[in-house]
Automatic annotation (TrEMBL), chains A, B:
Recorded catalytic activity of this chain's protein: Release of any N-terminal amino acid, including proline, that is linked to proline, even from a dipeptide or tripeptide
One Pfam family per UniProt: Peptidase_M24
Name recorded for this polypeptide: Xaa-Pro aminopeptidase
Swiss-Prot/TrEMBL cofactor(s): Mn(2+)
Length: 463, 463
């Protein structure tokens, strides 16, 4: 068995910086446990916690680690294999050998972490933890801390981790480029493989194969559907027909666990219909405008607002909305068509660091997330900085239930031409998505080229 | 969205029978919740609990159900979607509509199940539950029962569920045939796709694609490796070379969630080596003998013992062991080469009902599982009955660490020719596995034909 790791200095330096940022107390970072599927020992594919990966790199279940923010003393906790284990799993490195691979010289059995935590508490020291999202870790932390994990002080740690993980290192950008390029290959396979009469799940199978054949996996469950208006559609049982579009939102997680997250919308048949082309072009125009705005110093909230305004300008041109597009965005008109956010941070998680809290990852003490419909789904609002990696993913989604409700309420009817919108009630949805690194003077699109213009897409449908 | 369901009478009849078998008290069955991967809302593919599927069929997260074993009153508990949910997930049937699909007319919000449970407890009634294997359900049950789930009485329920699920209905056998046939396709793809120089994960990708393209998934993580001696080997990073064998243990879960579980061992190059052929033939002989014994009335423990004896006879013929094979099996000699069990029950779970306890599924009050090395890994020992579905999977595994330990201890050296065994230290492993239904007069091999003789396998490697 071979470990996929950066050079050990990468982890040593990251931990040193974390220690400086946190300054005092004991930092406890939990690795993940195996996750049971339909009985205890039938496991889902193991996924290590991303923050644990960031500081310790070890992609193995059943580990935890502490960093003393004052002394710098660092220990990895885990249990050694028995001969019985070796028969089933083969010979694996010891915990001590694994720890050495990432520059840690102190190791101890897993449950010893609890003792260290309790000793620190007994001496009145702060124990910094991250809020657990896996129930196994919730229960373990509750036992070790002798209190619910929610009660432990962790804001200092949360902010320190975000400060580090939000600014991608060159070594990470290389991995993200790789993950996005694999993701692009997944999309090319789907576009080329599509034929009227197939089932959606046959395309999903192809997408997954490309990820797995590159020693990767999916960074999130594939959204691939002729019902693109359903934002998180994981039903893949439809037969696809000429005249429909496929919305494919799929990304790879590469062998180093960095994510890609791309979306393309393409015709089931050889060509888009003229109505599909019209709306596609509006989404693409919004995307191009958003990309042109990306640079350090602009808030992503502003980019989202301008992208929404561009969408409404386009919808105005075809008679679906009326009035001033900027005023319409201020009133929330765009949220009838674009109910979600323009993008989010991306890295070791596809929604990077979502477990640490969107209010800290995507917003700040002074810029808070809006609670209004549509805006509340914008995961990233803060001012962009060099080294951020994010997605740009505008879309138009005709959700019949939402259109019906707004129309019945005559909501914002001075902006919305409901009679014209009614004709699009069963249109479906379009999303286009690429991934970007914020550079000193703008942005850099990550990964290999993936066709996105109408002409490029239709050229791929010549069969 | 379309639900994959049997006719509602199937579920109604199963529940009626369960009610009769349990007789008194309140039965509480937990459906599964979504399972978080690297942050709360990034989920693993949903897998419903198999017992919940068996009695209620609904493949949806966040449900629970009760059956009053006296009155027969049955309720499904679940929460309705909000408009916000619908935007993300699309319009889904209501809980009431879903319940009607499986013949249940009473529904209530999820947390009401707790009230029903507590009312029953307050009236001194037994609440029957199954031991949870997912931590979300452990925590929920602890809250509802006001006690640790381990404390609740459930043996009556466990035995009733096993009695039903162990005897497969005709409608289930059809689904298992389907799952095994998809599994056979997965194996054919792997055998045909293999070329020296490839990575193991490229073959895994192909295997997964076949399952997904049939609207299925994996019934367990693929074991596919040139290190076949590692029984549960989920590392797929090796480059495969001519002269090596691939051991591929992979099965599909079909759209109705029934499992297949097949293993084949084949050469990376065009042909097996003569030494590989020799051991392959020994394993195949053991398998054929085991299959010939399958019939109602024989214990699977006996089948395992005879299969082990056949293995040792073969190993004696090539000089690895000596003495009387039957005596050698009694002494445990076979466990140096065959450390695991000959097979297990299979159905909605690949190790069927493993969550209910091997001591009840595979053994009885009078036939207890052995605690000895090797024997303790035999999941199924009991007398076979018509309608059981099981796997037969003999193998020879040369585990260097185990050979070294036994050799150093001179363990059973009057039976084992350690000098000869040493030459096989790095041989690897061979397993061959098919799935069977126990019929009134013997057994029926499930699913389409998958080549297993040396000649058949090598014919597939002509490229």
């Amino acid at each position: 068995m071979q470990f996929n790791l950066f050079p050990k200095e990468v982890y040593i330096n990251r931990r040193k910086r974390l220690q400086e940022l946190v300054g005092s107390g004991l930092i406890l970072l939990m690795g993940n446990q195996e996750s049971s599927m339909n009985y205890k020992d039938n496991w889902y594919p193991f996924r290590q916690d991303s923050t644990f990966l960031y500081y310790f790199g070890l992609d193995v279940a059943g580990l935890a680690a502490t960093i003393d923010a004052e002394s710098g003393a660092t220990t990895i906790f885990g249990n050694e294999l028995s001969m019985d284990d070796i028969i089933w799993t083969g010979l694996l490195p010891t915990v001590r050998e694994m720890a050495e691979m990432v520059g840690v010289s102190s190791t101890a059995p897993y449950q010893k972490a609890g003792k260290l935590v309790q000793d620190a508490q007994a001496h009145g020291r702060t124990v910094h933890i991250l809020k657990p999202y896996r129930p196994e870790n919730s229960m373990q932390l509750a036992a070790w801390l002798c209190t619910a994990p929610e009660m432990a002080d962790s804001l200092t740690l949360i902010k320190a981790v975000i400060e580090q993980r939000a600014h991608k290192e060159a070594i990470e950008i290389k991995e993200i480029e790789d993950a996005v390029s694999i993701s692009a290959d997944m999309h090319m396979a789907a576009i080329r493989h599509t034929r009227p009469g197939m089932k959606e799940y046959e395309l999903v199978a192809k997408v997954e194969e490309v990820a797995a054949a590159a020693n990767g996996r999916l960074s999130y469950p594939v959204i691939l559907s002729v019902n693109g208006q359903v934002l998180h559609n994981h039903y893949h049982g439809n037969t696809i027909r000429d005249g429909q579009m496929i919305l494919n939102d799929a990304g790879a997680e590469n062998a180093m666990h960095y994510a890609g997250d791309l979306t393309r919308t393409f015709p089931v048949g050889r060509e888009f219909t003229s109505r599909q082309k019209e709306l596609y072009q509006i989404v693409l125009g919004s995307m191009d405008h958003a990309i042109s705005l990306l640079r350090p110093g602009i808030t992503f909230r502003e980019v989202h607002a301008q992208a929404s305004e561009t969408l409404l300008s386009g919808l105005k041109a075809i008679g679906l909305v009326k009035g001033d597009p900027a005023e319409a965005v201020a009133a929330g008109v765009h949220t009838l068509f674009f109910q979600c956010g323009l993008g989010h941070m991306m890295g070791l998680d596809v929604h990077d660091m979502e477990d640490l809290g969107e209010e800290y990852v995507g917003y700040t003490d002074t810029l808070k997330k809006s609670k209004e419909f549509g805006w509340k789904s914008l995961r990233l609002g803060r001012e962009l900085e060099t080294g951020y990696v994010l997605t740009v993913e505008p879309g138009i989604y005709m959700i019949p239930e939402l259109i019906d409700r707004w129309a019945a309420e005559k909501k914002l009817e001075h902006f919305i031409n409901y009679k014209a919108v009614a004709a699009y009630r069963d249109f479906g949805g379009i999303r286009i998505e690429d991934n970007f690194l914020i550079t000193e003077d703008g942005s850099h699109k990550l990964g290999k080229h993936l066709p996105k213009t109408l002409k490029e897409i239709e050229a791929l449908r010549l069969y």
